[in-house]
Design goal:
The protein is an alpha/beta fold. It is built from 14 helices and 13 strands. The longest helix has 17 residues. The structure holds pyridoxal-5'-phosphate (PLP). Pyridoxal-5'-phosphate binds next to helix 3.
């Protein structure tokens, strides 16, 4: 039980006492000189978990995706990705600005490109068109509410891209949520793609950072891009130490967050005027719609009413659209907190 139930995001998780301890004790060096043993340890652990040759610690998922896209592509190439993807929507067009690539967003049913969609989006060898340089996938899918795709789905899409000589990057900010939910290893997802970014700063609870994983050659290129945009850090072992604890201790417990999200979603689904698609609640995110018989204007007002009413009851949630709300479960929200959130929504929804 916490004083404030904060369901706005899993990025709000605070470092555990064990992380603080590890941070205080961390052996460090200059990581731009590749002399920080703790950073190296995190990178090696990440690479081992994902079954890749190497890893690179970066300040954020956004930087991991940027370094990956730029390392895979040349200026003037095109990147095929889902229209709702994080890279296309929430990364300030960094790959376009820094990498001079053109984004080719494709509308998908569930956030996951199908093999047919990739086949259709690949450019033919023709003097008029930008050559396809990369396909990006996202798992779990943020805007679609933490939904998962399977390693087999990734394999099928990657086969089409690779058949055309095009590499595949997986934005796996919450890859471990997918792995835990589907009871697969992280390497099952990673083995079909050429690079993966995952965050230690979300559900895994570390204060800072993501790790990019891929081949040794790819990571050497990504390291240069990281340096180019000012992401070379010095005694970064101080923060990477918490990432080591995150990988060692915080992965299996994600199942608790998923159970809490499910309990929350099932409770919300029973309330009037809330539209919850229970099938979309597969990991730690619950996105639901707010309806009103008087139409969209009233639904929008009701949404604002729910967010502010919850806040007044010390339950923080986030409106992600005019009539939709997102709740994210994480290690700093327990089962009692979920009951409190449901009580708050219950009082407000029956008004
Ligand atoms: C959070 C997130 C990112 C970016 O991570 P930051 O550390 O916030 O930059 C990238 N992709 C997805 C799918 C995310 O959910």
């Amino acid at each position: 039980m916490h004083d404030i139930v904060d369901l706005r995001s899993d990025t709000l998780t605070l470092p555990t006492p064990e992380m603080r301890e590890a941070m205080a004790r961390a052996e460090v060096g200059d990581d731009v000189w590749e002399e920080d043993p703790t950073v190296k340890r995190l990178e090696a652990m990440a690479a081992e978990r994902l079954g890749t040759e190497a890893g690179l610690y970066v300040a954020s998922g956004t930087l991991g995706n940027l370094a990956s896209v730029v390392s895979h592509t040349r200026a003037g190439q095109e990147v095929v990705l889902d229209l709702d993807s994080h890279i296309f929507n929430y990364e300030v067009a960094g790959s376009t600005v820094i990498g001079n690539v053109q984004m080719r967003p494709v509308k998908t049913a569930r956030g996951f490109l199908t093999p047919e969609q990739v086949r259709e989006a690949l450019r033919p060898p023709n003097i008029h068109v930008p050559p396809t340089g990369l396909v990006c996938l996202e798992n779990t899918h943020n805007r679609h509410g933490g939904t998962c795709c399977t390693p087999e789905e990734i394999e099928a899409v990657a086969a089409v891209a690779h058949g055309a000589g095009v590499p595949v990057h997986l934005d796996g900010a919450r890859l471990f949520n997918a792995a835990v939910a589907l009871r697969r290893s992280a390497s099952d997802f990673a083995r079909h793609v050429d690079s993966v970014t995952f965050c230690v700063s979300k559900g895994l609870g570390a204060p800072v950072g993501s790790v990019v994983c891929g081949s040794r050659d790819f990571i050497a290129r990504a390291r240069r891009v990281r340096k180019m945009v000012g992401g070379g850090m010095r005694q970064a072992g101080v923060i990477a130490a918490a990432g080591v604890v995150a990988l060692e201790r915080m992965v299996d417990r994600l199942a608790e967050d998923h159970a809490n999200a499910r309990r929350l979603a099932e409770g919300l689904a029973k309330l009037p005027r809330l539209r919850v698609d229970l099938a979309s609640v597969q990991t730690n995110i619950v996105i639901f719609g707010v309806e009103h018989p008087e139409g969209p204007g009233a639904a929008q007002a009701a949404t604002t009413g729910l967010v502010t009413g919850c806040a007044a009851r010390k339950v923080k949630v986030h409106a992600i659209g005019p009539a939709s709300i997102r709740c994210v479960t994480h290690k700093d929200v327990d089962a009692d907190d979920i009951e409190r959130a449901l009580e708050a929504f219950g009082e407000l929804a029956s008004k």
